[in-house]
Amino acid sequence: MSHSSTPDSKSNSQNQADSNSAFSLPKIYDPSVEEPRWQDFWRRHDLYKFDSVDSSKPTYSIDTPPPYPSGDFHVGNALNWSYIDFVARYQRMKGYNVHFPQGWDCHGLPTEVRAEQTFKIRKNDLPPSQFIEICRKLSEEYIQRMKEAIMRLGTSCDWKLEYRTMDPEYYKLTQLSFVVLYKSGYMYRGEHPVNWCPRDETAIAEAEVVHIERQGLLYYMKFGNDDNSLEIASTRPELLGACVAIAVHPEDTRYSKRVGRSTIVPVFGQKIPVIADEEVDPTFGTGAVMVCTFGDKMDVKWQKKHGLPVIKEITENGRIDTSDPRFKGLKIEEARRKVVEELKKAGRILREEPVKQNIGTCWRCNTPVEIISRPQWFMKTKQMTDEVTASADQLRWVPPFSKKRLIDWTQSLDWDWVVSRQRIFGTPIPVWYCKKCDETLVADENHLPSDPRRDPPPREKCPKCGSSDLKGDTDVFDTWMDSSISAAVHAGWPSDKALFVKLFPADLQPNGLDIVRTWDYYLLVRSLAIFHKAPYKTLLINGMVRGTDGRMMHKSYGNFVETGEVIKKLGADAFRQWAASGGATGYDIPFRWNEAEHGKKFLTKLWNIARFITQDSTTGANAPKLTQPSTIDRWLLGSLQELITTVTNAFDNFQFNTAIEAVRDFTWHSLADDYLEAVKYRLQPDSNPTDSRNARFCLKQSLLVICKLLAPICPHITEAIYQEMQEVRERRSIHSDGWPEPDKSFQDNVQMQEGKLLVEAIATARRKKSEKGLSLKSPIRKVIIKTQPSHLGMFEANQEPILRTIKAESLAVEETPSSEEGITGLTVEIVP
Ligand SMILES: [Zn+2]
Ligand SMILES: [Zn+2]
User: How far is the CA of 445 from the centre of ligand 2 (A)?
Assistant: First the structure.
């Protein structure tokens, strides 16, 4: 048995263990054997089942993020799932009926693109139903891979609650939520400019636009006639064809005579007005700015405000739509070159200068986003800003700064949420339109799910004009429409009212900082609109995992780590310790191999301690039992109660790093280095039976409590040790056993202080021996302990543990001279 970290004593301990056939914990802790073994045990016993019948336990519900089935369960996911599982296991041990589902957010563009690549087709080569079938199959393959990774991590979700947003039972509810919101006036169809990805040929939401900086060119162009010209600077001359006005600041004296008059657009030749608007920045370019429909959000605002016409110059696939044969059909970049060429030919370019541009790009494919107007479905989220802010303010955010991220985001939004997408693999929008009068027919709530691309409309004739020429919507919903009702779906909405009361709002909303402005935001607006309350109580936000060098993790940087690789090498319990100890929740953390390796080392230490302690299988009169515990026993048990309090508080506050550090510190130092060393002699066959029983009781008790406190973070090794400590194995699990409560009778301050002093004296004497080059086992003549008068009696009463642990022949306890008094007044000397 090893209590110090020297390699020597470690090999000794293993030899000692080999000679004792009573051991049934294997000599070496091998996670590749133990982890699958206990995972299988949990599965066989359906241990993490949500008990929907048992109403005696309070529920704790988790709205687990449904990941996108990409096939790769990366380290960032694994960090997120580790946090979730720590909470789930802790709450379960605290006596809660934990609802921990796992879902998959299936719909979306990446799968469509992958289907096109895998089968070398374009989405429109096949009928939608066949294309969807291919996407479903691909999703299923990727789900299986990720599911295995989640299982290997030791996650305690209830697989009976698994769901897929692409399944009709699920998307039926997405459609239902739409119908409900349509009826209450939150959903509307309209033709408004929206962000558009020309590569993916679909509308995208503001949350899906990623802003980047790039170097561009600012072109100074001459508008108007030679005798009445106007100089305009723009980075996008290709939009000249869609130019509908020139705007200047009302107080800009350079242009005051121009306002209200008109000018001519070069190359394209249309006549446009010069207007005044306070939002023009007179210091940019020439102070006169082109208004094009639509170059950017400002154009959208000015077009509306000044009632300007709309010219749709850019098509949905990013080409120029004009009757002018010089530009017709050109791609945006080509058109820019061509227009500049024509401007130069006409002598209309005055100069060009480099400029830093901030442009919006598509989050999926990085293509610069355009603004395109076509009929779309919207949710009225803009009017909800105050309500969202007030609601976010009431919730518990861990860490608190993540709340600001959501509030800032909601207040920065300019437009309503565009919920329709011009794609195929998504939840169909259950709506039909009258081709004659454009009336909208929304599906009946009782006839969902429905796919208007294929299913007949709810009525044969248009209720407004009687026409039977009705056409189903071919668009689908934004995937956030699916995932933003997850909390309600878990809670059995709309049919299971009793369950809904129990599970909604969810107790925990755990997700990465990167999706606060999407998932957390969309969940909140949808829930406020449908249920008039927030869908969650506490938000546990994790930071991003950086590469081993601290930079963002990226395959091309060589700092990329795969979860599977870490688990294969060190085991899930070691990986989970890295996740717990990485830092405070919400902050980015780098992946550190040495942290995980340190975790593995700790498991080996704990395993060795457990092998030592569990070799004691004494029953009957000599079984471990506590009667008249000694000073050091009381100190250990007192410290154990303090540990319970510390770890419980840490879990209650999601401070996983505090929890793991406290358990490791106690195990390594208080239990192994201090207590075990000081009671070894009491475990010898010739020792006093009461002393022996007490020591063995304290060791077992500590091991059991350590395992329980560690079980949420290291579920496998703690289960293995726990089973070893049971009379009948595999009858119950540590994870369904109760969470330990501190026993106040061991928390006597005076006794704790005396115990601490005794432990400190023994540790100091041992250190002094080693400083003098003496082995711990070599006998010495004398120990001299000097202390304050109030502690003299305690040291005298504890002669035996001191002498026998230090291997000294005699002990002298003396009063500390008043001049040497420290806080405890303790000094220790040894005489070899
Ligand atoms: Zn895109
Ligand atoms: Zn009609």
Answer: 21
